[in-house]
Amino acid sequence: MSWRFRNGWHASACVRNLARHSSSQAQLQSTTLHFYQNRQLELYASKEAHRLSLRQLVFFGRSMDEEKLIKSANYVRTELPVRIAHRLRDLQALPYVVVTQEGVARVYELYWSAFEKFRRYPQVTTLEENGAFCEFLESILNEHAPVIPSLSLGLSLSSPHLPPDSLDAFMKRMLVSRISRRVLAEHHLALSKSLGTNSLSLPEDPHVGIIYTALNLRHSIDKCVALLRSRPYDIEDESGESVPNRGWPEVIVDGHVDTKFSYIREHLEYIIFELLKNAMTATGLNHRNSFTLPPIRATIVVGENDVGVRISDQGGGLSLARIKSPSDLFSFSHIRNATRMDDTRLGALRSASSRGVKATVAEQIRPWPTEHSNVNSNNKDPEREAGIAPHPRIGLGLPMSNIFTTYFGGTLELVSLDGWGTDVYLRLPKLGTNLEGIEL
Predict the structure, then answer these.
(1) How far apart are CA 385 and CA 396, in angstroms?
(2) What's the CA angle centered on 287, arms 383 and 234, to 5 degrees?
(3) β-strand 235-236 against 251-255: which pairing, if any?
(4) Which regions of the chain are under pLDDT 50?
(5) How far, CA to CA in Å, does 411 sit from each of 56, 402, 408?
(6) 220-267 pLDDT per residue, tens
(7) CA atoms of 264 and 385, how far apart (whole Å)
(8) How far apart are CA 159 and CA 333, in angstroms?
(9) How many helices (H) and strands (E) does the chain have?
(10) β-strand 260-264 against 211-216: which pairing, if any?
């Protein structure tokens, strides 16, 4: 039987499932209505999303005034329900056995609630109304914190029932769309806060909204290294056992170290943080009985159209018995990555679902001792700023890094030198002309 069912039967099945998750009769009635009386959803889902590039976001955000800010608010107000509607359609097309998995129904309810709130939100016409709209955006961002772990949990449990390509394609659409909505919302929030100031005149960090127009790649790497080296020394092996560690390896940065380009700093630093964290952990485990640790090398290279970073470690490589190729670490399917069905990982996802995950570096370092306070106090945690929680062994770091990388057309490749180490190749476009990689 096809994994996509007929809408009529499927809607009824979903209602029965969602009813079990409803806490009141009012919620049940609401669920029933939005499965059957969904003309508004069909209307919005029939519209095209207006994809943007980094250059367009920067160009519009320069010299912000009241008129442009109100225009930005109304763009976000009308664009986000269109993007949410497409993802609601994706959720409605899932097989019944997937919808019944824990977490999936919760995500559907969150999306439907946000869709209804956005489509009913009145036009913004004044700065005072924009202030209220910004508070509304922040509340939606906070409400949707459980989406990433809840989806990952539900789709991991559904892995036996979905072909790997279908599962990964669905998760990619959901997560890229989620990033795109967060970017639009947070960019508008940042523009609203900067009204009346010239953020481009700041000598250290010129930026427009959340986009840094002269992002120093070496500084971002150094920041992530400082945060990571401030961690407690004990690390966990693959079985979850604590392994004493004498310290963290040095990170040598070479190549085109003066490189600057326009990019969303929170996305870049989340990716760098995750890649360096994995490299440091692998190096510590592989050399657990050594008195010294071999260094990790981060090489920066600038091309005509992109910026590249190669991170090389001596952590023994990725010769894991439960994956066939390094790229399987990006997959949410247990067929490609058997660790998706580990009890410890599922438990971690359940815990993360209860408190939310925003996909930021700050969430990763939150449980650590305050040693990292000695790092430049202006260094906000890249994970918290990018929007993912630090639950141990949650299994979202590499998949989310890949999603962040491909959002504006970049690539992330893992090359395992089994028995020696791993080379990771990150490539990001530097011209800012690539449109968002959202799918409809």
Answers:
(1) 16
(2) 50
(3) unpaired
(4) 1-29, 31-32, 36, 370-377, 383-384, 386-391
(5) 22, 7, 9
(6) 999 999 999 988 777 777 666 777 777 899 999 999 999 999 999 999
(7) 10
(8) 5
(9) 16, 10
(10) antiparallel
